[in-house]
Amino acid sequence: MSLVAAREFVWPARLSEPGPGYVAANIALILVMALLAVWVVLSHYWDREEQRRKLTADFLWVEQNFRFHVESDEISLDALGQETVERKLGPAEFEDRVRHLQVNNPELVQVALVDSAGATTLVYPVSVDEHGRPAPDALAATRGASKAALRSGKPVYSTLYRAPDGDPRFALYVPIFLNGALAGQVVGEFSLAAMMRHMVPWWYAERYNLMVLDAGGRVVAQKSNIGTDESMMSYEIPLTVPAGLSLRAVAYPPASGITRTLFLVGIVGLSLATLWSLLALRRDMKQRIAAEKELLAHHAFRQAMEHSMLTGLVVRDLDGTISYVNPAFCRMTGYAATELIGCRPPYPFSKPQPGIADAARDRNETQIHTRTGSRLDVLVQVAPLIDAQNRQTGWMESVLDVSERKRAQELSRRHAEKLQMTSKLVAMGEMASSLAHELNQPLAAINSYLVGAINRIRGGRLTEKELTEVLEVTAAQATRAGNIVHRIHAFMSRREPHRAECDLNRIAAGAVSILDAEADRHGARIRLELAAELPVLNGDSVLLEQVVLNLARNGIEAMADVPAQSRELEVRTQARDGKVTVSVADHGCGVAPEVARKLFSPFFTTKAAGLGMGLNICRSIVELHSGKLWFEQNGPGGSVFSFSLPVDAA
Amino acid sequence: MNVERTVHIVDDDVAIRDALAWLFDSRGVPTSVYRSADDFLERFPGDHDGSAGCLVLDIRMEGLSGMDLQDRLIAAGIQLPIIFLSGHGSVPIAVSALRKGAADFIEKPFDGNALVDRVVACLEEEARRVELRTRHASVKEKLGDLTQRDREVMARVLAGKYNKVIADELGISMRTVEVHRSALLRKMGVRNAVELARLLADPQSGAG
Q1: Are A530 and A487 contacting, i.e. CB atoms less than 8 angstroms apart?
Q2: Which of A409, A472, A542, A593 has the fewest CB atoms within 10 Å, i.e. the most exposed one?
Q3: CB-based contact (8 Å) between A272 and chain B?
Q4: Which residue on chain A is closest to B60 by alpha carbon?
């Protein structure tokens, strides 16, 4: 997992509106759909055009075929008539000929030969008129055409008529000439339906509905009876023979139309689906943007919160690499976040310790080092960092600066200590003052008595009696002074030393630990050099600790004016010659010789606020333990105060 | 001048009183001892003319302290030199006492003869002060006898002006000036202008 969220997260500048890519995609999609629609329309149009062209071509072909058929029939009938007349064929031969003709031309229903007088000579299939004479069926309906043919000497087509069974028919009258003279005419009766049936090929019938219309537009014959409607494409031309008829072809919708429609439906459906998905995408994007905005606001809120927080936060991986620090921690330590992120132990702010805090404990008070080198008391709270997979990925430490609080505590403690000390000193001063006054009284009296006596002796006017008297009162005053001194002594030794077995190493270490904070305030370091093993002493550990404290405190204060790097105090213990020696060496300003002489006298002090009792009391305590306290110069600058105590003193 | 020169010793310690009396007696200085400030206030004869004494006063005493006694004396207008004796040197007390006009502040134990020397010096100074005060009083009395014109003439005489000039300035005759001049010299009990100037200068410096 990566917790590199420590770096400031930069959100994309444009967030609220969709990008140009999105718009382009939309436009492209719409264009594609438009083109598709245009293509569909155009292809439909093109198909229609193609269909129409084909219809036209096919229609013209079929019309031609129709005409060709009729014309070939005309020629066949003409040939039959000529042969029959020229060779004077009998009915059987005629029938044979007609049959033969009918095989190829099934539309030819009946053929008859009529002579120039109008009498039917041959007819096949045989049929008779109302008088029982052989006559073609068509003649009754198409006598006008017959007459027109005879008159003009050219083939004439009759108009359309209905056979008794309703079959639409027409007749062809072909005049026959023999040796230039009209010899008769051949009558051919055609069934339009049969004609349609045999003349139109199957493939045509599949595509088109071909029909023959009369002059009134009524359908008289058609190839197919599948219904047609007006919307279908059609083509119509009038037929030359037989006259008054027209041929019309209606194109069926192409079979491929279904597939086509399916295609179209598919395309439209897919387009709609695409459009819908686009809309859905847009809605989704809007929701996403709203969510992102919310997230951004939340992030800003979190960031503001984080920036305003006073508690330092540090996130470490399991291997101790710092992956995140918050601004408060940077302010606290003075390091920039970039300097700390990626750091591995030992961290710049915690030189002596492996981590900020011992991970085993979840709450710890410790010290951290700021960039400027000063120490900061902090309260560290450690919590494991658990990721979404419920695995621990590191530690989250919150660091609270408690140095102000500690400083306040320390200040109040020192204040109280000072107050106590002061009151002690005041009491001591009071006592010293009153004792001095008391002692001064007899001393002043003694002096006066003696000076008075001397004056008299010089004047030669002192009697022996007077001298005796004055010496008596003087002696009494001396005794009085002595009594006062006794009282002082009794007062001083009111506290009996509480003797017990004690270890000077422990005493020295204890005193140093008490003074550590004070030394730090003075920018001084205390080096403790303890002897490996010290014989156990019998003494008052509280008093002895006071001695070490006093000497060390003096040493620290003596170094106030030397450069910070040489402010080092050494507290050393050693055992030698049946004595245990504790020495406190400073590198301060040293002790001037004239000061050194008065060093141990009471009420002598070089400190502005001192009473001059410290060293004096120290010496008293040391002497109480049958030891001695002395002073030496320490090299070029500084001084060493030592005291030694006999091991067997008790 | 016949001035009584008594040292008044006020101390609640009988040994000190006795020893100091013995000491001063050895130097021929008369003493009078009091065992407390109240005792002194009761028995002190008062600061009458011609008497000049000195007060040796212990600071710390039962009842009224030395400082209290000093305040009482100042309030009563009794000008008596005070030498304080102190068992323990307290600078603020010493400063306060000296500011209020104490002659000296001596710490116990002291060198006996040095104390006596200081007291004697005080007594002499006091005697001189008393004499000056007396003289000052008499000059004041004599000045009271002068007339207005006498004073006008005297001011000009002291300025060193000649009679002629004085006469011109005052618009009187030289003769009249001479009459006034001899009258004022007589009234002031001096023989000439030089003595007059000295007489008037002395008490001023003494009083200052």
Answers
A1: no
A2: A593
A3: no
A4: A437
How does pLDDT run across A113-145, given as a tens digit for each residue?
Answer: 888 777 888 888 888 777 777 878 777 778 888
Q: What value, to the nearest 5°, has the Cα angle with vertex A192 and ends A191 and A198?
A: 90
Strand, helix or coil at A537?
strand
Question: What is the model's pLDDT at position A219?
Answer: 81
Residue stretches of chain A with pLDDT short of 70: 1-19, 225-231, 241, 254-257, 350-363, 423-431, 433-434, 489-497, 601-613, 649-650
Scanning every residue of chain A, which has its alpha carbon at the shortest distance from the alpha carbon of B24? A452
The pLDDT value given to residue A354: 44
- Residue B91 touches chain A, beta carbons under 8 Å: no
CA A619 → CA A418, A501, A578, B152, B156, distances in Å? Answer: 22, 20, 20, 81, 80
- Is the CB of residue B26 less than 8 Å away from at least one CB of chain A? yes
Q: How far apart are the first and last CA of chain B?
A: 22
- Sheet with A628-633, strands from edge to edge, namely A525-529, A568-576, A579-585, A639-646, A628-633
Task: List the 443-482 stretch of A: residues with Cβ below 8 A of B.
Answer: 443-456, 459, 470, 473, 476-477, 480
φ/ψ of residue B149, rounded to 5: -65, -40
Strand order through the sheet with A246-251: A219-222, A208-213, A246-251, A234-238
pLDDT score, position A423: 65
Which H or E run contains B172?
A: none
Q: For chain B, positions 153-192, list CB contacts with chain A under 8 A.
A: none
| pLDDT tens, position by position, A11-35 | 555 555 556 777 887 888 888 888 9
**Alpha helices (runs of H) in A464-611, residue ranges in sequence order:** 464-492, 504-521, 541-558, 593-598
What is the end-to-end Cα distance of chain A in Å, rounded? 69
User: pLDDT of B51-76, one tens digit each?
Assistant: 668 889 988 887 788 888 999 888 88
Query: How many contiguous H segments (helices) and E segments (strands) does chain A have?
Result: 15, 22
d(CA A323, CA A315): 6
How many C-beta neighbours within 10 Å does residue A568 have? 17
Exposed, middle or buried, A173 (CB in 10 Å: 0-12/13-18/19+)?
buried
CB–CB of A447 and B85 under 8 A? no
Residue A253 DSSP class:
P
pLDDT of res. B205: 42
Looking at residue A446, its pLDDT comes to 92
Residue A78 makes CB contacts below 8 A (sequence gap 6+) with A155, A174, A176, A186
What pLDDT is stored for residue A257 in this prediction?
Answer: 65
Phi-psi region at A596: left, alpha or beta (left = phi > 0; alpha = psi -120 to 50): alpha
Axis crossing angle, helix B148-158 with helix B193-207, rounded to the nearest 10: 90
Nearest CA in chain A to B22: A452
Q: Closest partner residue to B88 among A433, A442, A459, by Cβ?
A: A433
- Please tell me the predicted confidence (pLDDT) of residue A495: 56
What pTM value is reported for the model? 0.36
User: Rounded CA gap, B127 and B4, in Å?
Assistant: 9
| Residues above pLDDT 90, as percent of chain B | 8
Checking phi first, is residue A484 left (phi over 0); if not, alpha (psi -120 to 50) or beta? alpha
Structure tokens at B1: 């001048």
The Cα of A478 is separated from the nearest Cα of chain B by a number of Å equal to: 11
What is the residue-wise DSSP string for A415-461?
Answer: HHHHHHHHHHHHHHHHHHHHHHHHHHHHHHHHHHHHHHHHHHHHHT-
> How far is A639 from A482, CA to CA, in rounded Å?
37
Residue type, A38: V
- Is B19 in CB contact (< 8 Å) with chain A? yes
Helix residue ranges, H only, A560-626? 593-598, 614-624
